[in-house]
Every structure is written in C-alpha cells, then in structure tokens.
Design a protein that fits this description.
The chain has 254 residues and is of the alpha+beta class. Helix content is 40%, strand content 14%. It has eleven helices and four strands; from the N terminus they run αββααββαααααααα.
Amino acid sequence: MDPMREQGIKAARFEIRGTCYPFVGMLSPQVVREMYFSRYGGPGSQITDSAWLGRVNKAGLGEALRKVAIHRAGKAPWRYSLGLVQHACFAEVYLLDDEWLLTDRVTLAELDPGVSAVDQAAWAGDALDLERLLGQNRFSQKELDQGLFSALAGSWDATGVVRLLIAAGANVNARSTDGSTPLLDASANNEIDVVRILLIAGANPNAVNSSGETALSLAACRRCPDSFRAKKEYSQELVSLLTSYVAHEVPSPD
C-alpha cells in the first residue's frame, strides 16, 4: 500500500470487537486497538512517537486503514466451536505495506471478559497502551506478574512491554501454575532479547519448572514437545547467553 510506505509504516495491526452471530459473523464492529510498525517485526518496531502517529492520522491514513480492518473483520468466518448463540467477539487484522506478503487469515474468536486490561496490552505487545495504563492506574503484584506471562504468551515483540512491567515492579522470578517463570517461557520461545532483559533484571537462570526443565535445557533442544509450546528455531546465541549466566550462578533451592 503506497500510503503506508509514504508514512514509513511497514505494518499495522488492529483489534476489532463486536457481537458475533451464527452464520452471520460480526456486527457493530469497533476498533479497540491499533498499532503501527516501522518494521515487519523485531524489538522496537512499534511506532510510539506521538508526532509520527499524528502525521499518520493527519494524512487520513489511520482512518483509511481502520475502515479496511473493519471490513475484513466483518467478512471473517464464524468459528463453529463458538456454538449457535451470539457472543461478544474479536478479530485481529494485520495489514502490510506490501500486498504480496501473506498475512494470517482473519478469524473471529470469543472475547473473554475476565482478561484484564494489562493482560490484553501485554499479550498484544502494545507498549504504548501499557505505558498509558501503568501511568493512570495502580496494579497489584499479581496483575503485574501475570502481565509478564501474558506478554510471553503472545506472538508479537514483547521487549517493550516486558521492560515496562519490570519497571512497574513485576517479579521476574514469578511462578505460573505449572512452575514456569518468565525466563523459562522466553527461552522456550527463543526470545533472546527478552531473555537478556530478564537476566539483567535478576531472573534466576537455574529455575526449574514442574517438568524438570530449565531455561538452558529448553533453549538447547530444537523442539521440546513437553514444553507448553514447540520451539520456533534453534539459537546457539541464546544457549551461549544462558550458559554464561548459569556458570556464574549458585543453583537455586527451588
């Protein structure tokens, strides 16, 4: 899309919410989250500069892309697993400046009302929204810690939101229900930039989950079927980083 290129935008991501009906799809769609990126992915790719975002909207690009996103969400197929009753639902729409590049197919999913605003922003990797939330509200330790796990469960760059959550007081050695820690999750997903941030912030490199896995053992296998998610790829750099920390740490009693 030439207008996106003119504004220096490689990608845009929109979260659309509405009410979904069987065999009809989404009605009354509304954009509840929009994110713009200067690169297709990677650390620091989200555009958070207010002046830059202002130019995007002044040029009319933001409004045009929102209309495209709403249109695609309205055409998304109904997932039969949602049943035959209406649901509050959402769809994520990813737009690229190069129409020849493939994006994920837009599908509708049921909205979980129990997910907090912090979890939503963290999972989306939305540093701009998370910074706003943290500046306007006080969150419990549990909410901040859960935000870290949500950030690492998402499929987007988590470096910005992880830094914000740590600065707000999130515990880098928090435990999930399966005994995992943020470092274990980041290592299982080969997120070397997040792993580095967590280690610098004091994450325990010797922590063990309920399956007996450590961050290093998760990073060192090419595919780990016993972990909560298969490895995307193998990174010797990640193994070397974790090894350097493990070698200088006294094993933790947990």
